[in-house]
Design brief:
The complex is a heterotetramer of chains A (about 100), B (about 650), C (about 290) and D (about 525). By secondary structure, chain B is mainly alpha-helical. Chain B contains 25 helices and 3 strands. Among the domains of chain B are: about 300-470 and about 480-575, no CATH class; about 575-625; about 630-655. In chain B, about 70% of the residues lie in helices and about 5% in strands. The termini of chain B are far apart. Chain D has one domain (about 5-520). The chains are: A mainly alpha (about 100), B mainly alpha (about 650), C mainly alpha (about 290), D mainly alpha (about 525). Chains in contact: A-B, A-C, B-C, B-D. Chains B and D meet through helix 1, strand 2, strand 3, helix 6 and helix 7 of B and helix 13, helix 15, helix 17, helix 18 and helix 19 of D.
């Protein structure tokens, strides 16, 4: 099968994730959309690995997963901390860092 | 270049012998008073007790060295009397080589004797005069500094050394005028003196630049050799001469820079005697005489010199008649006497020696007059208004006699010194020939008459007539003779004023002595016979004298001057210094003030405003731009996505075409 | 939009065999899952849809000869990470659903337009470029390496060993960081048992165990009024202070002295505030509350 | 002797000292002062030794050292001294102990502690030495910018005690002005690098290598402007000067001395070291502009100085006039003017430094910079007034004091090339007399108007110790400037000769004049 299909799928997922990040306000949902984007990239990496015929892509995808895991841990901890003080999980409420 | 070679080959070449023997000590002349000044200034209060002794001894020692050098010089061959001493290299930059070097020759040595001699006498006088002043030590320090500077001025063997001395005497003069600096008038007068001197200094500085630019040297021997050889273009040499003249006018209080000199009388009287009568103010005459080879080459510049001299004679005389302040009258008399000297040196080779002779004689009698006036002021509790004097001769006989001798000298009464020197100048002015000669001669003659008038006025108002002061009352005066430290120098100076003229002029002593420096003085074609002229001069002077006697001896003198409305316009103008100050204010000070105010505004509003405006514009813009930072993460993400699309799109466009 | 895009992509791809079949089943599910997550009102639904999506992606990995990654994806992502997500979601409160009214003007429109543009930018040129490009496939490599896992492991522990170590350090740091972030610094002294108890009593919380769900009676005592039918204002599962928007509680809150007491017995006052002592709760002395509590 | 890395030593001592002093405990403020003083004195001794070891007549850089720094871009740590830089390093080293001693109690009112103040001073010294010693254009740029930081804090944190807003304003203005110039210079430095890549095949920032290049004239003009504006801001030349009065007025006394005395010399030093040798054609092209700015600056600075009421601002404006003279000397392209300009840099550091010191002492006593708050101080504080007068006289270039030699050299050197300009500039010395003596008159003479001034104390022993060496140098350099001239002259002459400028010969040379140099 032409691996291009996977890439198209990956692109679509990435775009959907990106839109999700932009339109959702619940921090956790935003975060999930980020995960979706990461996964889309991973998919393309695996596909590239297949196209190129070596495993480097898969290894990088693996690293992305690990880093994503770390990121999730920290990200969720941050969301929790913010929620604890502000009683809100909306990303729009966290807007103190402005002009 | 050929002119250089030619100049060296011609007869005008100037050569100075290297210093040896006594001459190698000539640096001591400057070093002694300088050391005195340094000790007194750095020693501080510790030297208060004996400061005046240190200062006087330094001056005296310098005078002794000067005498030794003078007699050594006399002992040398007539053509070999110019001795140059190289001390150290001062400013050596490639083509511009200036050495600290001294030149002892016939001209400088007479100045050395005048400066150190009169200087020492005035030091001695000051011991008494300043006895009660808490700043006496400082006074002596400044006087010593002045001596050193003045000696540097006359001893330097190049124009830059002269310039250094030139400005340093200006500094000493400044320091001494503002000696009583708690008096605002003194401080203002000092500043005025320095500013106007600086204007002159600019001229001198530019002249030196011209010399270097043209000749590559500022040494006397090089400059004079080139000038005498005719190697310098006519335009250049005229420019140099006129610029030197500007410097001379500033220092000597000549028109148009004369306004500072009368104000300088705010300083202590010994200073007026030493600096503003006998020595410093005559530096301009020295400069012109020293630069004789330059002035000889340019008729135009000489004409300007004589015009300035003539104008200044009249200005000084006219204003001198109007003032009641004894020191101001003497100051204007100085102005006018220096005018005579300028007139003389402006007449070329015929006049240099006469100018110097008058300068020396003037140094004696004017210093004596000032010291006498100081003695009077001292006795009258610092009263300077002559209208409050009168009949003082009874109370201070020594002052009266010495002052009287000086007075006779200045009005040109034979056989006192002024008679010989002034008479000769008038004669030479007539001898110049042509209409200009007549004009100059008549001006000089007229000046002699007016001088006789106002000096007689001064003398009579001060020492004769009815006393216009009282022993009793709120401002009771107790005139008394001054102490010996003061009268001693006065007596010596009086002797000098009696004898100097005859000594210098009769038989052409000084002319012969100075001939190697300023050029030979051939016998001129007399327009009027000397005898006739002498008689004419005497008659004119006697006329002035008689007028003054009529007006101030035979009629009572008012204790208060008449208001301006009651006197002639000329007197009013004279009382206002012929509006010199008014002119300076209107032409320089007021526009200057406005210019400064405008520039302060300009700097703050325009230049800084431009900078601040730019900053404010950027600040305003960034303030607007700042509003895009809403703090909403999603907005940022949106712009990131937009940016990504742009970049990816651009990449695709470039890559995929 | 997606069917259209896929339709556009279809002619340029030549799918065949089992892989193609699986892909064409899996891919729409993945896209629908992703869309659903973005559009879902409830975050928990979103999370579950994401799980579905991630699972589909894992299948894609498997399809492409990357079994290791596929299973890691399932275990780590769909398993561990998504559970973490759900955990936090629950911790924060499931019902804190966001309002779907957009507050930032134009955000949604711009996001949609840009998202579409981005998708187009990614998909169309890609389709152009990859048309008919043969894939090398990793099957050979896997075989040469003694299986996918061995092959990846070899790479990880040889060429990428430093990256691997760095990433493991990162994980440890992330764990520690999470602990530090969620750890609350104690500001005062540690409360003793006695204090804890007193506070609990003074706060007027229920001291006895709360009855289980489904039981209307919230206390055994007869002096307590039962909750209203439907239990809407009942104390079940919540702190009393957060409840009771009724007049009685409001009256109690108004006075600092009686605040604790108001919640104690009279909070569930309901619609008849005047009759209960809760109405007087505002003025009631502290002792009264205590008495009832004890 | 050749093996002694003088410049590196001179650079390391203040750096190490700055760190050391910064690390001292906060309460050990006296120790911090003493350590700083000792270090600066050691630095002074070493700088004097280095100057003695310097051989004036040897061409090229001496004490040169070179180590690669960022090899990829051809950046190196390379230092070296020529006649210009060695005297400026010496000047910085001379002024430093003076400043430390003068600032003994000054930092106590600052908001960052005493130790930090002295640490900043040492850091500033390191920057100054570095900027003069660098022979790598990039290194020069780094030091050029690095110097700003300590100065910024010195003004902002230790400046005029009661004027929080104004001093922050001054500090920021100073920083922004300099940074703006610095960025232009950075652009030009990078441009220079690019040109070197094209011409030499390998990119380099090495000054000696860059000097060998032949850049086409248009490029030269742009690069010249980049450097020139940076230096003109730093120096400062009219119309880039408005930061100076603010910074000068708000700085602590010691900071002002270093700012005007040494820091600003980087500008004029840069003109002579970088602008002229690297871009000779552009320098020729722009010379009329620079000369015009210089002459305008002479008059503009002097007239504005006359119009000031704030004493420190006044002194700052006098500096503007003096920098006009220096720039005039740099761009007249004669060895006399150039030598005079470099000598002027040293002399101006001493005389204006002294003026700032004395004014600072006066202001510290009364807490006001307003001229009208004084009057008749000569009676109350005679020594202070005397030193004030000496500083002022040096500033107005009185013969016998140091500035005269340099000013006259500048003027006479300019005269041989540009007669009219020199004549106009000479008229500026009248204005110099006016601003100095007018200030003296208003503050020192007349009756003591303000009652509180009657209780003001004269200079203390510490303050006398501060001014004594400077006064001594002012007099000594006025009477015998030859040692310095001998160091400066060969370098300046070589600089101008290399770019094809020779001193114009006098139109009527007198036989034997040119050989008179052989006296010594």
């Amino acid at each position: 099968m032409n691996p291009g299909n996977y890439l198209v799928l990956s692109g679509l997922l990435f775009a959907i994730g990106a839109v999700g990040v932009l339109v959702r306000r619940n921090a956790i949902v935003v975060f999930m959309c980020v995960e979706l984007m990461l996964n889309a990239v991973n998919l393309s990496l695996v596909t590239f690995s297949r196209i190129q015929g070596n495993l480097e892509g898969q290894v990088i995808a693996f690293f992305v997963m690990v880093v994503a895991a770390a990121e999730v841990v920290i990200g969720l901890a941050i969301i929790l901390t913010i929620f604890r003080t502000r009683r809100s999980a909306s990303v729009d409420d966290v807007n103190l860092l402005k002009y | 270049m050929t002119p250089a070679v030619a100049a060296g080959a011609e007869g005008g070449a100037v050569h100075y012998a290297a210093a040896s023997g006594a001459f190698s000590l000539s640096w001591l002349l400057i070093a002694l008073p300088l050391a005195g000044a340094a000790v007194l200034l750095l020693g501080g209060k510790r030297t208060d007790k004996f400061g005046h002794v240190v200062g006087t001894v330094a001056a005296l020692a310098s005078f002794v060295v000067g005498l030794v050098i003078f007699f050594t010089l006399v002992g040398r061959d007539g053509s070999d009397r110019a001795v140059s001493q190289h001390l150290f290299s001062w400013i050596p930059v490639n083509g511009f080589q200036v050495d600290a070097g001294l030149l002892v020759d016939q001209l400088s040595v007479v100045f050395v004797l005048l400066i150190t001699g009169v200087g020492t006498l005035i030091h001695i006088y000051s011991i008494g005069y300043m006895a009660h002043d808490p700043g006496r030590r400082k006074f002596f320090a400044y006087m010593n500094l002045f001596l050193a500077s003045m000696l540097l001025l006359v001893l330097g063997n190049n124009f830059l050394a002269l310039y250094a001395g030139w400005e340093l005497v200006g500094l000493s003069s400044f320091l001494l005028i503002k000696f009583w600096e708690y008096k605002p008038a003194a401080a203002t007068a000092a500043n005025k003196a320095f500013y106007m001197n600086r204007v002159g200094d600019v001229g001198l500085a530019i002249a030196i630049m011209f010399m270097f630019g043209t000749l590559g040297s500022t040494n006397y021997d090089h400059v004079f050799t080139a000038a005498a050889g005719g190697a310098i273009g006519h335009g250049t040499i005229t420019a140099i001469a006129l610029l030197l003249l500007l410097g001379a006018c500033g220092k000597s209080g000549q028109f148009p820079l004369q306004a500072w000199l009368p104000d300088a009388m705010e300083g202590p009287t010994p200073i007026s005697a030493l600096i503003h009568a006998a020595t410093m103010v005559t530096a301009g005459v020295y400069l012109i005489a020293r630069s004789a080879p330059v002035f000889n080459e340019t008729q135009a510049a000489r004409t300007v010199v004589v015009i300035i001299g003539a104008v200044t004679i009249l200005i000084g005389c006219v204003i001198g008649c109007a003032y009641d302040d004894i020191k101001k009258v003497l100051a204007y008399s100085t102005v006018s006497q220096i005018g005579y000297m300028f007139l003389a040196v402006g007449l070329g080779p015929a006049g240099y020696a006469l100018g110097i002779a008058h300068l020396l004689a003037h140094g004696f009698f004017k210093a004596g007059l000032f010291l006498g006036s100081g003695s009077v002021i001292h006795a009258m509790d610092d009263e300077q208004d002559m209208r409050r004097y009168g009949g003082l001769w009874k109370y201070m006989k020594v002052t009266w006699v010495t002052f009287g001798l000086g007075y006779l000298a200045i009005i040109g009464c034979p056989p006192f010194s002024g008679f010989f020197t002034k008479d000769k100048i008038i004669e030479t002015a007539f001898d110049k020939g042509g209409t200009s000669g007549y004009i100059l001669g008549i001006v000089a003659l007229l000046g002699a008459g007016i001088t006789a008038f106002y000096m007689t006025r001064l003398f009579l108002m001060t020492f004769h007539g009815k006393a216009r002061w009282s022993h009793e009352g709120a401002d009771a005066k107790h005139p008394h003779e001054s102490p010996t430290t003061m009268t001693g120098p006065m007596i010596l100076l009086a002797i000098g004023s009696v004898a100097a003229g005859a000594l210098f002029v009769v038989g052409g002593t000084l002319q012969d002595w100075l001939a190697p420096v300023v050029g030979e003085h051939g016998e001129a074609d007399h327009v009027l016979s000397p005898t006739v002229l002498t008689l004419l001069t005497l008659v004119v002077s006697a006329g002035g004298l008689a007028g003054a006697v009529l007006r101030y001896q035979l009629r009572p003198v008012d204790a208060v001057a008449k208001p301006d409305a009651a006197v002639s316009p000329l007197t009013v103008a004279a009382r206002h210094d012929l509006y010199a100050n008014t002119f300076n204010e209107a032409a320089f000070m007021i526009p200057g003030n406005y210019l400064v105010r405008f520039l302060v505004w300009f700097d703050k509003i325009i230049i800084d405003g431009l900078v601040g405006g730019t900053a404010a514009t950027i600040g305003g813009l960034s303030g607007r731009l700042r509003r895009t930072q809403t703090g909403y993460v999603r907005t940022y993400a949106l712009s990131m996505l937009g940016g990504t699309i742009l970049v990816v799109g651009a990449l695709l466009l470039v890559r995929a075409g | 939009m997606d069917p259209h895009l896929l339709a556009a992509a279809a002619p340029i791809t030549s799918t065949s065999g089992g892989e193609a079949l699986t892909f064409w089943i899996i891919a729409p599910i993945a896209v629908l899952g992703a869309l659903g997550m973005v559009l879902a009102k409830n975050a928990v639904h979103g999370a579950l849809l994401l799980v579905a999506n991630l699972f589909c992606v894992a299948v894609c990995y498997l399809l492409q000869d990357a079994p290791f990654l596929g299973f890691v994806q399932i275990v780590v992502y769909t398993g561990a990470i998504m559970v973490l997500f759900l955990f936090v979601l629950m911790l924060i409160g499931v019902d804190s659903t966001e309002s779907l009214v957009e507050t930032l003007r134009g955000q949604r429109l711009a996001a949609t337009v840009l998202g579409l543009g981005f998708a187009g930018l990614l998909v169309f040129p890609l389709g152009k470029v990859i048309k008919g490009q043969p894939a090398a496939g990793v099957a050979d490599v896997n075989k040469a390496g003694g299986g996918n896992i061995h092959a990846i492991a070899r790479l990880l522990f040889t060429d990428y060993v430093f990256a691997f170590e760095a990433v493991s350090a990162l994980l440890v740091i992330a764990a520690v960081g999470a602990m530090i972030l969620t750890h609350r610094e104690r500001t005062g002294p540690k409360p003793s048992q006695r204090e804890t108890l007193r506070r609990r009593i003074e706060s007027g919380a229920v001291l006895t165990p709360v009855p289980g769900p489904g039981v209307y009676a919230r206390a055994d005592s007869a002096d307590q009024r039962p909750a209203l039918p439907g239990g809407s204002n009942g104390l079940v599962g919540g702190a009393p202070s957060e409840l009771g928007p009724g007049g009685g509680a409001a009256g109690g809150r108004g006075d600092d002295a009686g605040a604790g007491d108001a919640g104690d017995g009279k909070a569930p006052s309901g619609p008849v505030p005047a009759t209960g002592p809760g109405a007087a709760g505002g003025a009631a002395p502290v002792g009264a509350g205590k008495g009832s509590g004890l | 002797m050749h093996t002694v890395p003088w410049l590196t030593i001179l650079l390391v001592i203040p750096v190490a000292g700055a760190i050391l002093v910064a690390l001292l405990p906060k309460r050990a403020s006296t120790l911090a002062k003493q350590v700083t003083l000792v270090l600066t004195l050691v630095e002074l001794v070493l700088a004097v030794l280095a100057t003695i070891a310097y051989e004036p007549d040897k061409p090229g850089f001496q004490f040169a050292q070179r180590y690669d720094w960022i090899k990829q871009f051809g950046v190196s740590y390379s230092v070296g001294a020529d006649g210009i830089s060695i005297v400026l390093i010496l000047l910085a080293s001379v002024l430093m102990p003076v400043v430390v001693l003068a600032s003994w109690h000054e930092a106590e009112e600052g908001k960052r502690g005493v130790g930090a103040f002295f640490s900043l001073l040492l850091a500033l010294q390191a920057g100054m030495v570095g900027v003069f010693a660098a022979t790598d254009v990039f290194l020069f740029y780094v030091f050029f910018e690095a110097m700003l930081i300590p100065m910024y804090f010195l003004i902002g944190s230790y400046g005029a005690p009661k004027e929080q807003t104004q001093r922050s304003y001054a500090a920021v203005k100073f920083l922004l002005y300099s940074l703006f110039g610095g960025l232009l210079m950075l652009a030009a430095v990078i441009g220079l690098y690019v040109v070197s890549v094209h011409q030499l095949g390998h990119g380099t920032f090495d000054f000696a290598a860059l000097r060998q290049m032949h850049i086409d004239e248009d490029t030269q003009k742009w690069l010249f402007l980049g450097f020139f504006i940076a230096f003109a801001i730093k120096a400062p030349l009219f119309p880039f000067h408005t930061w100076l009065p603010d910074a000068g007025a708000q700085s602590p006394t010691g900071g002002a001395v270093l700012l005007v005395g040494v820091l600003d010399k980087v500008g004029t030093f840069g003109l002579l070291r970088y602008c002229i040798p690297l871009f000779p054609d552009a320098a020729d092209y722009f010379a009329p502009l620079v000369l015009a700015l210089a002459v305008i600056g002479i008059f503009y600075g002097a007239l504005l100085a006359i119009g000031q009421r704030d004493m420190k601002r006044l002194v700052s404006y006098t500096s503007l006039a003096h920098f006009g003279f220096i720039a005039l000397g740099c761009f007249a392209f004669t060895s006399q003017a150039g030598t005079g300009a470099v000598l002027y840099m040293v002399n101006h550091g001493l005389s204006t430094g002294l003026l700032f010191l004395v004014v600072g002492f006066l202001v510290a006593r009364r807490g006001s910079r307003d001229v009208d708050a004084y009057g008749g101080m000569a009676k109350v504080t005679p020594v202070l007034a005397g030193v004030f007068l000496i500083a002022g006289l040096s500033s107005l270039a009185l013969p016998g004091l140091n500035s005269f030699v340099s000013e006259f050299l500048v003027l006479v050197g300019t005269f041989t090339e540009y007669k009219a300009l020199a004549i106009v500039a000479t008229c500026g010395i009248v204005l110099a007399a006016i601003y100095v003596l007018h200030l003296y008159k208003r503050t020192m003479t007349g009756p003591v108007v303000h009652e509180e001034n009657k209780l003001v104390a004269d200079l203390s022993l510490r303050e006398k110790l501060v001014v004594a060496p400077v006064v001594a140098l002012i007099v000594a350099l006025g009477v015998y400037p030859k040692p310095l001239i001998d160091i400066i002259r060969p370098t300046v002459t070589a600089t101008f000769t290399d770019v094809g400028h020779h001193d114009p010969a006098p139109s009527v040379p007198v036989a034997g004049v040119t050989t008179t140099g052989g006296h010594s």
